[in-house]
Amino acid sequence: MILCFLVLLKLRMKSSLVCQFGLSRSGLYAVAEWYVAGIAKKCKQFPGGCVDDICFDADRSKYRLVTLEALRLEVLRQGLERCREFDAVHWIQLRDPYNWFSSLYRGITSGSVRWYGPVTLDKWKDYARLCLESDQWINYNRWFGDCEYRRELSAKFGFVQNCDGEPWQHIPARGGGSTFDRKKFENQAQQMDVLQRYIHFVDDPSWRNQFDSDVIFLAEKLFGMERPW
Fold first, then answer.
1. Quick one: how many helices (H) and strands (E) in the chain?
2. CA–CA gap between residue 141 and residue 26 (Å, rounded)
3. pTM of the entire structure?
4. Can you give the CATH number for the domain in which 39 is found?
5. Which of 4, 29, 99, 110 has its CA 20 to 30 A from that of 12?
6. What are the 10-residue block averages of pLDDT along the chain, 229 residues in total?
């Protein structure tokens, strides 16, 4: 009886600490909202969190969702290791490089996104290589566009609502909405053309030259997506 109670307690503790890792403009806050709605629990969220935020709440029955953005590779590894130590629910979230870099590029040039360091795909490659080694990652492209994929994830996460794979239509306020559409499609997020953003920059040589053979390989392996030009 005592052993069974301890096992159940551990499972509850495991599910109350949730961490997502990803890059800005990868749909992190939309997926976070979808997750919180799906578990139907009060959840304290830590947007723009750091590795030290990866810990249980003082009341371990309270849910805690930490979003960690654009970490350096060594810090990202530390965060993932800390999640394993706490037995936290966690994932890396990745968007394909062509549309991700388009959204980032648009945000930086318009002044709506702050990005520190060179504007390259180096961080994307770091995250992508970790995804190749793990099954603990969310393919943002599929989450946005694939009903069955959302259904699989909802089952994996133990959702009590939003279990039928219906799309998430709300546009989170954090980050100012889409770098292309802002909040134009509020509560109609599926109307945003998030999987075709690259067409805005495909004729820009300075943008196109960022996609080296490593990026092209990783995009094909993780997203089944060939270079779109």
1. 9, 5
2. 9
3. 0.86
4. 3.40.50.300
5. 29
6. 34 70 93 95 93 92 94 97 96 97 81 67 97 96 95 95 82 61 52 77 91 98 94
